[in-house]
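One-letter codes give the sequence; backbone shape is given numerically. An example follows:

. . .
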Amino acid sequence: MWLDKVPASAVDSANGAPLHSQVGAIIRSHIVDGVLPPGSQLPTEAELQNRFGVSRSVVRQALAALSADGLVQRGRGRGSVVSPRGEHHRLVQRMSGLSTQISAEGADVFTAVLALAPEQNAVASAALGAAEVVGIRRLRSAGTGPLAVIHTWLPSSIGAGLTVAELTDASLHTVLRSRLGVSIVSGRRQVRAVSATTALARLLEIAVGEPVLLLEGTSLDEKGVPIEVFSTWHRADRVVFDLDVVGADVSALAPAPADAGERPTRAQLAGMAAALARQLHDLSVEMARSD
């Protein structure tokens, strides 16, 4: 059992941190690193007590904190088990946004508008061909918690009339289409792995420096007119980018994903993100040549 490999001295009252936090941190690290995949049975309260020489109340506090974070499920008569992975898939080639694609999975999607106001952004203004742009910052969540932070820029001629109320818990593309008759039909996308800043970490509820998947792009309407520029930072442990490949050598993708049911390590997440970024770059170059 994995617990037998953890030294009893890993929990020490002289450490300075509360004992329940130390016990919880040990279990959490084994879940995050994939040692304890979803559905794994955790040691009993008595086993954890005996291993670390702590009281039952300490163990229960640790498990309660893990349960509150969604990492552990507790049930009377069945002990504690590692929660299923709250993973959502996004097909990068589709113009439909994250909200639409996750809703199609049957999940409830929530969108909070963090900011909606005119902004000075030279890059967005140049891409949109507009001297004045409106910036929209949103936080998108699903049942598992925060999924992505989205920063979108629209020409003021389109974005000036939008309101926080109509964008809350709604798809921006749907609002543009239904209220303004603007349809997003094409665009260019790129993805790369970046480290979470302090602000992103706070919103996504992750540690500063953790890898996140950054999807950036410009979207066009049916006339080829640029409508939006956006940057979306996704939690790498909750959002998976799918990519349909035709006539390509997919065997070259590396590293391989973790086995079914296992949670990938941070190194694996960063490696998969880098591999996906390279593949998407190659695909965008190929598409540009065929335009």
The first strand starts at residue 72 and ends at 75.
